[in-house]
Amino acid sequence: MSRPEDTLSADVHYDDTEARKYTTSSRIQNIQASMTRRALELLNLDSPSFILDIGCGSGLSGEILSDVPEDEGGPHVWVGMDISASMLDVALQRDVEGDLLLADIGQGVPFRAGTFDAAISISAIQWLCNAESSDTSPAGRLSRFFNGLYASLKRGGRAVCQFYPKNDTQRNMITQAAVKAGFGAGILEDDPETKNVKVYLVLTVGGAAQGGKGGDITGVVDGMEGVDVVDQRKKGKSGKGEIKKGSKAWIVKKKAQMEAKGKIVRATSKYTGRKRKIAF
After folding, report:
1. In Å, how far are 22, 119, 146, 153, 216 from 101, measured between CA atoms?
2. 3-state secondary structure of 142
3. DSSP label at 46?
4. 94, pLDDT greater than 80
5. Which residues form the 18S rRNA (guanine(1575)-N(7))-methyltransferase Bud23 C-terminal domain (predicted)?
6. CA dist 108 to 148, 177, 228, Å?
7. Which pLDDT score, from 0 to 100, does residue 209 have?
């Protein structure tokens, strides 16, 4: 099944007709509200905060931010940015409480460093994986976005981006771009292995995250019901799959990595990795 982002840019796809259709759909409203509340749970904000809503559209997610009750840490003040003028026009007609900015997140996040306490994005960042012209590239758009987002957040801040990856390649490209920008990153999946799977990229900015917990997704989801942590970083570091540093297998692997970078290495032989006898 084709996706709109495969053929059109978001500002072209979400014209006046599509923007109004999207906003008035009760199904979309319910899904958007549910995912925004999940993102807020992952942000774990314990006091009113200044939040950036990335790809805010017609303000469906922003309304949830404005309506967070005081005993749950709200209400929050927010700024929304979106590439679709039609979507923002609907948001203005709906008289949402946040400030709105017409901007392409693929060109960066144009705010002063350390402006926001947190950020959310619902169903938006997958649009960055498609280039509208030969002058742009998904890698470049993702890099500009995550670098700008990282700078715009306060140290210890957090961002949660819900998105629909087309495949594992796209999912990894997005995650790696976030890590390269400096974020601590992790993926949380709701309803995994179903057609309704929802992917949340949880990002932390240096130091301790909100609530004094470590800036790592394992600290973010600590204590959450129904959440299992699969830490890919631990694979290959212990057990039968371990490659001992300095062993022949380790040396061969390093040589392959260097060759892939275009470097010249010595040929592997039966002597590779062999320990020399100590000469007296």
Report:
1. 19, 15, 18, 17, 30
2. helix
3. -
4. yes
5. 209-277
6. 5, 13, 33
7. 47
Compute the distance between CA of residue 188 and CA of residue 107 in angstroms, rounded to an integer. 27
3-state secondary structure of 50: strand
Which residue, chain included where needed, has tokens 């490659």? Answer: 243
| β partners of residue 158 | 118, 204
Say how many C-beta atoms besides its own lie within 10 A of residue 27's C-beta. 7
Cα–Cα distance for residue pair 131/25, rounded to 1 Å: 29
Q: How far apart are CA 266 and CA 257, in angstroms?
A: 13
pLDDT tens digits, 227-246: 555 555 555 454 555 677 77
- As a whole-number percent, the residues of the chain with pLDDT over 90 amount to 59
What does the buried/exposed string (b/e) look like for 149-171 if buried means 16 or more CB atoms within 10 Å of the residue's CB? bbbbbbebbbbbbbbebeeeebb
Of 150, 141, 139, which Cα lies nearest the Cα of 114?
A: 150
Q: Which two tokens stand for residue 115?
A: 């402006």
Residue 10 token pair: 């978001």
Query: What 3-state DSSP class applies to 224?
Result: coil
Distance CA 136, CA 132 (A): 7
- The string over 178-196, giving b where at least 16 C-beta atoms fall within 10 Å of a residue's C-beta and e elsewhere, is beebebbbbbbebeeeeee
Phi, psi for 159 (deg, rounded to 5): -130, 145
**What type of residue sits at position 239?**
G
Task: Report pLDDT digits (tens) over 30-62.
Answer: 999 999 999 999 999 999 999 999 999 999 999
What confidence tier does 260 reach under pLDDT thresholds 50, 70, 90? confident
